[in-house]
Amino acid sequence: MKTFTLYERFSRAFHDYPNLSKLVVLFTVSGGGLVAYSDANPISGYQSIFPVETENKKKRVVVLGTGWAGTSFLKNLKNPEYDVQVVSPRNYFAFTPLLPSVTCGTVEARSIVEPIRNIIRKKNMDIRYWEAECFKIDAQNKRIYCRSNKPSNLNGKQEFVVEYDYLVVAMGARSNTFNIPGVEENCKFLKEVEDAQEIRRSVIDCFEKASLPNLSEEERKRILHFVIVGGGPTGVEFAAELHDFVNEDMVKLNPGVKELVKITLLEATDHILGMFDKRITEFAEKKFKREGIDVRTGAMVVKVSDKEISTKERSGEVSSIPYGMAVWSTGIGTRPVIRDFMQQVGQINRRALATDEWLRVDGTDNIYALGDCATINQRKVMEDISAIFNKADKDNSGTLSAKEAREVIMDICERYPQVDLYLKNKQLRDIVDLLKESKKGVEKESIELNIEEFKSALSQVDSQMKNLPATAQVAAQQGAYLADCFNRMEDCEKDPEGPLRFRGSGRHRFRPFRYKHFGQFAPLGGEQTAAQLPGDWVSIGHSSQWLWYSVYASKQVSWRTRMLVISDWTRRFIFGRDSSRI
Amino acid sequence: MKTFTLYERFSRAFHDYPNLSKLVVLFTVSGGGLVAYSDANPISGYQSIFPVETENKKKRVVVLGTGWAGTSFLKNLKNPEYDVQVVSPRNYFAFTPLLPSVTCGTVEARSIVEPIRNIIRKKNMDIRYWEAECFKIDAQNKRIYCRSNKPSNLNGKQEFVVEYDYLVVAMGARSNTFNIPGVEENCKFLKEVEDAQEIRRSVIDCFEKASLPNLSEEERKRILHFVIVGGGPTGVEFAAELHDFVNEDMVKLNPGVKELVKITLLEATDHILGMFDKRITEFAEKKFKREGIDVRTGAMVVKVSDKEISTKERSGEVSSIPYGMAVWSTGIGTRPVIRDFMQQVGQINRRALATDEWLRVDGTDNIYALGDCATINQRKVMEDISAIFNKADKDNSGTLSAKEAREVIMDICERYPQVDLYLKNKQLRDIVDLLKESKKGVEKESIELNIEEFKSALSQVDSQMKNLPATAQVAAQQGAYLADCFNRMEDCEKDPEGPLRFRGSGRHRFRPFRYKHFGQFAPLGGEQTAAQLPGDWVSIGHSSQWLWYSVYASKQVSWRTRMLVISDWTRRFIFGRDSSRI
């Protein structure tokens, strides 16, 4: 159907000369267009965006958010037995790893967004989308309260209620200001597409303001002092982008600008890119130093006014830095609606919504949370150690034999991934080798442990537990995992595939979520990128930049955005970045 | 004149071979890539954006505005003997004829803008640009007062004064609301790039709002009722774009939307596209009717509230139309700073700044005005008739002979273009044929006219006077004309090239400005465009659309924007328009 429309669109313009039209199509789209053609496959289903009263008895799944987690969930959901409703204030998915590129015009904002309706219309399912913000989750009554963020012209009907059977919370997080005074009012953030666009306009504004005729040299320098707070990958990439923008593009418009611009990167800890390998951190710090980007580590921001940022050094000394524009990128905080919901379900004083290993919110049985708004509250082996022992001790002898241990080890490793990690780190292939450590001198096959000995053997495994980072990669994998669970919900109900329930009876329905780390990039500017890939493999330089280009191009959510991003990069290579205040 | 013929020849060719226009597009596109490289060549001149104290004695030219007139002036200015300063709140030139395409995402906003610094840095001249708004012109003291439109962070130094020797006023106009209550608050305008972006967001917002779950069918219909006030080319093109967007793109996301969307075009006069040929008007009205766009002519808007537009029919009947979004596009009005300046120079109760035929503001001797903010106050022959007669009557005989008349006719036609037009319309090759009309029966060569007879012979010529339309074409030609005058100022001072000064002595320095009309387009949607070309040549349909594509691509101010616009068109052909709220 779509193919026909596409043809029709061309033929309308070319109806008298069909051969010429083919030539033009072939010519204009060259290589990419052919693939795009295959991407534009039949849209089968009819999805009205207007609410249809659902008379059927389908389970109602409500998804909050259209970021990495929510979109990944929607893309992977295949079971037509759900009535899905999506609520998000953004009617698009944004490829957030390219946000720093948007701040200086290397990539256009529109090139990294894909309308959520484009994504859902390709699925033969009941999915409806509403552009609104969920401002309250009522877990008791299984409903959420939503509000349109464009209330004008709606006759006071901007608020509405959606009821659910399952709720998937994927609302992401907000920037964390740590309640430092002046940050909210004076700093720019870099979480949303609009933030990146605003930073872009502000950067151009600073250059334009600094060029006004009646300013002193000192004032120009202050206006062109860009301060980035937070030395994580986002802050570092923005600093690098800005440096490139000044040195590759602005300098062409006025060579004198280079002497006036200063970029400062403030980091509270000892090193920038702390989560990366030491080699990457060192390389980045040296590169920035060489290029004149002032990296100030160990500097805590204590206050931001409209023209100055006050920092406190380790020594306790407080100093003030005059600035023209400040970008705040120090990590994530909890959204108010999530905080409110956490109190409802008895989760107090936590950073994010705690879930079990199946991404279900602790304290609920039909609410799932994934992405930046959630954190997996991994179960400790030591908490369950007696239950594990009892389950494993099949003959109720009060001791665990080598055979008995081997029978449950698969389930233990699946339920408690830290055990698996621990064995791998110790390079032990057999659980009995671990158990033997607390019973030295005994023959491996004739080992028998009582509960105290079993505890002591496993006492160190929980040290392997780590929270997952708040990255796009984690969120996307969680979305895909949860969709897979929803797809097979009925089958797995009948025929559970998960590990043994050590504290209860039977098995878990699903295998718990497992994160696979595919590596991480840190673009450092000047066509150089640092890449840290699994297996402790580190690569820094121009070749990693090309790896970065190809990974980011291939990860785009649609052929449309892929083409746009690639054409943006090409345009930047040929014409440089644009400096219009648009 | 030469271009005219060339154009006409092309038009003929397109008429006979409609596919030729497609070839032109092909050529434009294919040529683009190669030449684009040569366009991105090294910057030749060094221009600091930071003010340099000018010690030299160069004449200071201050240009207000970076629209069609201002940019055309800057592009064509070649004489390095000027110290040029440009003041404009927009640091870019925008290709405004594509603004309606931006409203629905056919073309991206950024694709039609070119940074003004990119344009001026290619010139080996002293040109400085300041992003500020001129809020007062002080003609007495030869200075202007400016204000940065981003005042924050400037320590109160956002205002400054610029002195000039010559002032070029090219500030354009603002939308005219005719002081109708509620228009300013509730309607969108379509003059600036930001306006187009806002309309785009509003259109998407309307679709999103209409899809919210708790609205009645009637409310959805109201929210999806788009009203365009003003049936000029802009309003008509926006209506057509919106109709295409709904029927080509939105309908794919939800087929039901077509029944809810309504587009109404309100026009106070009897026909839309009143300035075009009748055939075009008729075609457009029929096409719109067929497509369900409600064209209501003879409807004056009297009031706009947040949900309703009140109109008054010819019959006096007042009715109210509920709407979701309204776009106001009824013509242009004067900016406050221009109005204030007009009072200073004694121009009261005029629509725009009046200039003479050399674009110099009436009542000043060093201020020029061009583009939409100005209008040429063409001198009537009848005002000067005695002076003309005296000048022509070389032998002071009190009568004008055929020979005497022939000697001055070139100057008369140049000084008073209406005479030239009148002769052409009457198909008279010789002025004496005209003079003969008031002295019938006399042999042509022995004609002798006294002043009264001369007056009577020329009494009808002033009827040919017409104000120039407020179009990009006029503004661009005026900019180029004025730059040419500035380039040759000194030469022409010594060796004037203009016509005789009938009221004074000697000759005018320059030939007066003459507008050459190259035709006008009115895109009507569905890949059809109406084109009205010189020589009363009218073309409507798909081939004109391709002519439109090629003309608009070729008229882009830089190779960068040309490539961007073409790639936007290509993207739209392949993927449709984007509906993300960005």
TrEMBL record, chains A, B:
Keyword Methyltransferase: yes or no?
no
Instruction: Name where it's found.
Output: Mitochondrion inner membrane; Peroxisome
Q: How does it sit in the membrane?
A: Peripheral membrane protein
| Short name of any one Pfam family annotated for the protein | NDH2_C
SUPFAM superfamilies found in the cross-reference section: EF-hand (SSF47473), FAD/NAD(P)-binding domain (SSF51905)
Q: What is its main location?
A: mitochondrion
Lineage, top-rank taxon, reads Eukaryota
Q: Which InterPro entries match?
A: EF-hand-dom_pair, EF_hand_dom, FAD/NAD-bd_sf, FAD/NAD-binding_dom, NDH-2, NDH2-like_C
One annotated GO molecular function = calcium ion binding
Q: Which cofactor does it need?
A: FAD
Coiled-coil annotated spans: 425-464
Keywords annotated in UniProt: Calcium, Coiled coil, FAD, Flavoprotein, Membrane, Metal-binding, Mitochondrion, Mitochondrion inner membrane, NAD, NADP, Oxidoreductase, Peroxisome, Transit peptide
Q: What is this protein called?
A: NADH:ubiquinone reductase (non-electrogenic)
